[in-house]
């Protein structure tokens, strides 16, 4: 096979690629191959030409662009191959035919040199090539297929010279095109990829340890591109002392040779431990206080790290981080603990202090990106703090912010990522504003809206006892966990809440009750109403209370006794009978 071009491309991130293309045998399609030695396989691409009436007069040009290889055939196609993460074809960009990007490129033959330099064979001039950030951002806004949007998104995050600016532009694009992608979730992909690149330069092994993308498989074919992947024999390097690039490359080759397991971090362990802690909390059997305190301290460090990094930026207008929200803090803290253990296990040559800071930065970045997505939508729709009150009508702006918060929740839930403390409270408040009751309850029952103590407390205080509000309050209270429900019921001065408190009190009293022989004669003088079933029941409760005060002296039941239960029963009966 004759070679039209042979190019060895390497970059400072321990990658080694060899590219070649055979002589053209057809004007209908062109084949070229790239050997990814740092990955242990080769990929052969066959590209259909845009027009068979436009003959191929020039050879393929391969350009080294650090994290990418540009493959360019003047007038026909421009491919941008991701060499750091080449596994999925959707992370590379394939443009063909009369594309605006292709029309901007030179039509003379080019030769790639080191350091992103290229030589124009016709003029003899040297040029330094780089990817245009502004062009890529413009490209993102155009109506393009999902695989091109994903490829451009990753290209921007890996090659952008101003990460904060690029992230802001991508967030703006996501906010305007929240439902524009069908093959992947743009919020998920942005959060995972941006967090990855935020700490990638810290160590050379990060690409094997942290997730780069939320997409694990890609089965959609890209029109005009045929791809064949084959394993290759790894090079045998015989050098007495490896330094710099060669040291990193050799370490990567060793990883490819000997690693048989998938080392990318995931939150499966965090998911199991978090559910275990929440379950223990509901049953009141939580494990060591020291363990839980250490987990919560991890969350405090992440939030402090996040605040320290954002001191120079404009203050947030969204009401986040204003409450404890222990469930989310537990999730943040558990992620810090598990990720730190993961990196310590596989980065044995890196200082523990550096790894701990990397973990804090990574988790802070996750939370920060979520905050910024919400902040962008909040500012765009000009929302104000008064949306936190229930005694007002919802606006179109609140509907829009509620929608994007729901999409953020969907994106983070499948990956089991933490949310900023206060997120669920704000989401629930907007849900009460925006949704009719049956939809609201459907969202709650399916776990889309999570009832927090802060949100429900505000609801009980803000809303009066109209018939509509009573129905809402009762529907919310009966869906609360018992521990929170006992506290909230005391905030609602209503027969319905008294009824719920009474039920909980009776349940506690009768839990271990063993029936004792009693006198068949009841002292009617001690009861306000002569109703035998109720009188007998109240006398039984009174006997239990008097015989063992500890049974009803449980937390949160101050001033609740048999007399309270009797009054609540009568009030509730009166309400049901409409008397």
UniProtKB/TrEMBL annotation:
InterPro entries: GSAP_C_dom, GSAP_fam
Gene Ontology cellular-component annotations: trans-Golgi network
Gene Ontology process terms (BP): positive regulation of amyloid-beta formation
Domain Gamma-secretase-activating protein C-terminal: 367-474
Annotated protein name in UniProt: Gamma-secretase activating protein
Taxonomic source organism: Phyllostomus discolor
């Amino acid at each position: 096979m004759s070679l039209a071009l042979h190019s060895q491309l390497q970059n400072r991130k321990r990658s080694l690629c060899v590219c070649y293309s055979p002589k053209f045998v057809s004007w209908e399609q062109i084949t070229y191959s790239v050997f990814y030695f740092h990955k242990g396989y080769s990929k052969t691409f066959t590209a259909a030409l845009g027009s068979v009436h436009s003959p191929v007069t020039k050879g393929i040009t391969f350009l080294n662009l650090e994290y990418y290889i540009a493959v360019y055939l003047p007038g026909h196609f421009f491919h941008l191959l991701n060499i750091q993460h080449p596994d999925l074809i959707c992370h590379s960009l394939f443009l063909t035919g009369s594309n605006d990007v292709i029309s901007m490129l030179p039509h003379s033959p080019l030769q790639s040199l080191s350091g992103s330099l290229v030589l124009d064979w016709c003029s003899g001039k040297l040029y330094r090539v780089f990817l245009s950030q502004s062009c890529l951002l413009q490209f993102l806004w155009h109506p393009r297929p999902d695989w091109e949007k994903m490829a451009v998104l990753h290209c921007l995050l890996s090659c952008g010279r101003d990460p904060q600016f690029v992230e802001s532009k991508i967030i703006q694009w996501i906010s305007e095109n929240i439902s524009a992608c069908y093959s992947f979730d743009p919020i998920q992909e942005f959060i995972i990829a941006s967090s990855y690149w935020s700490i990638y330069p810290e160590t050379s092994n990060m690409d094997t340890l942290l997730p780069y993308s939320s997409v694990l498989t890609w089965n959609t074919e890209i029109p005009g591109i045929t791809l064949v992947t084959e394993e290759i024999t790894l090079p045998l390097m015989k050098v007495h002392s490896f330094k710099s690039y060669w040291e990193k490359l050799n370490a990567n080759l060793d990883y490819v040779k000997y690693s048989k397991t998938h080392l990318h971090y995931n939150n499966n362990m965090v998911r199991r431990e978090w559910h275990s802690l929440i379950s223990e909390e509901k049953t009141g059997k939580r494990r060591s206080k020291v363990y839980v305190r250490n987990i919560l301290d991890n969350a405090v460090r992440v939030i402090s790290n996040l605040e320290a990094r954002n001191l120079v930026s404009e203050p947030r207008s969204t009401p986040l981080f204003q409450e404890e929200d222990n469930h989310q803090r537990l999730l943040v803290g558990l992620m810090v603990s598990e990720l730190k253990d993961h990196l310590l296990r596989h980065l044995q040559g890196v200082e523990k202090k550096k790894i701990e800071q990397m973990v804090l930065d990574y988790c802070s970045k996750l939370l920060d990106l979520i905050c910024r997505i919400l902040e962008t939508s909040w500012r765009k729709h000009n929302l104000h703090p008064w949306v936190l009150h229930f005694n007002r009508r919802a606006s179109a702006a609140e509907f829009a912010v509620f929608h994007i918060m729901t999409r953020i929740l969907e994106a983070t839930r499948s990956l089991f990522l933490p949310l900023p403390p206060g997120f669920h409270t704000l989401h629930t408040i907007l849900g009460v504003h925006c949704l009719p009751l049956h939809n609201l309850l459907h969202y709650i029952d399916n776990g889309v809206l999570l009832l927090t103590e802060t949100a429900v407390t505000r609801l009980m205080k803000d809303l009066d006892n109209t018939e509509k509000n009573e129905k809402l309050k009762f529907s919310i209270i009966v869906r609360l966990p018992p521990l929170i429900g006992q506290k909230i019921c005391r905030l609602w001065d209503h027969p319905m809440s008294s009824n719920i408190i009474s039920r909980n009190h009776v349940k506690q009293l009768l839990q271990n009750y063993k029936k004792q022989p009693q006198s068949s004669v009841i002292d009617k003088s001690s009861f306000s109403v002569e109703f035998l079933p109720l009188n007998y029941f109240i006398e039984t409760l009174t006997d239990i209370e008097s015989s063992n005060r500890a049974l009803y002296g449980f937390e949160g039941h101050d001033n609740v006794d048999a007399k309270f239960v009797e009054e609540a029963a009568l009030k509730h009966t009166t309400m049901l009978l409409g008397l």
